[in-house]
Amino acid sequence: MSSFNSNNNDKENLPLLQARKPNNYGRQVLVSVDSNFYNTTLPDLLLHHFKNSPDLSTKESLLNHSITINHRSRLLNWMIEVTSSFGCSDNVFFLTVRLMDTYLKLTEGLENNDLHLIGVTCMFIASKFDEVTPLKLKVIHENILFSHHSEEEVRALEGRILEVLSFKVNIQTCLDTLGCLKSRYDENCSISNIARIVLYLVQFYYNAQDYDPRQQAVTAFIMAAFSERRIDVVRTILSDHDLIFPEIEEIMSKFYCGVEEFEKNFPDYKSPMLFLNFNILHQDGLPLFEFNNTQ
Question: Which portions of this protein are annotated as coiled-coil regions (predicted)?
Fold first, then answer.
């Protein structure tokens, strides 16, 4: 497993999630369920859209720091390698990212060279919360930090992070919502698996934090259902007043472009494809991914 170098120079102009113009992917998905359904039902659903919980927002989490956007994305690429190499669950990765971004949102004055230890310490916390056999501090120190930071530093930062978060470690992640959607709509897990990959990839885009975990998960799940040509599932979700929200069309278009152009936008970040065993299919249409035999 590779070590993380906090001293690398980062590019300043990292791509953000944006809908390529012209791009009608979001409308294509919505209209595909049935033009009459879309025209008559969706406006009613918008009246009951999901409202964000203010305490869950990590939007612009780096605003009060000197940490670059690319440094955060580079750390995420490395963390996928770490969590995969040590057999951690997907939950550990997504909770780690959520804890880290929330901590950054609530603090200020940190720099690039602070982020590595913050990310690893959040991973330590997440593994203790989610795993039956969590990562041990000795493993964190010797095999993940490669002794660049002491066990005492990890313990001290763990206490600091927990204090800043008011010990609220059970923070909602997009994977929590995805699990609920899987239980309700996806018995064979084929849709959920595609949605999971979409969610991994969009975390690399800093402005994905503009959308709360539930919005991210619902968007990814609808994209995945559409990719699997499960129009029945798309229709069912769009009829659920508790799930739909006004921005769904816009977010789908942004997520689709972000996924399709991931390798162009992040040419040096190979961990998602390598450790999650998939390839992105660069084509206008379906499906989104090709999975290796081990997936």
Answer: none
The three-class DSSP label of residue 288 is coil
- Whether the per-residue pLDDT at 47 is higher than 50: the answer is no
Name residue 102's amino acid. T
Q: Which two tokens stand for residue 264?
A: 């162009």
- Asked which of 164, 190, 209 is the last residue of a domain, the reply is 164
How does residue 3 score in pLDDT terms, banded at 50, 70 and 90?
A: confident
Q: Exposed e or buried b for every residue in 61-89, given b needs 16+ CB within 10 A? A: bbeebebbbbbbbbbbbbbbbbbbebebe
8: alpha, beta or left, given left = phi > 0 and alpha = psi -120 to 50? Answer: beta
Whether the pLDDT of residue 152 is over 50: the answer is yes
Q: What average pLDDT does the chain have? A: 86
CA torsion sign for 41, 44, 48, 54 is positive
For 295, the token pair is: 């997936």
Q: What share of the chain is helix, strand, coil (3-state, %, to 5)?
A: 60, 0, 40
Is 191 found in the same domain as 152? no
Q: Determine the Cα–Cα distance for residues 37 and 16; give it in Å rounded to an integer.
A: 32
Global pTM reads: 0.87
Look up residue 177 and give its two tokens: 């919502």
What is the domain count for the chain?
Answer: 2
Chain segment 167-200, per-residue pLDDT in tens: 999 888 999 999 989 998 998 899 999 999 999 9
d(CA 65, CA 25): 35
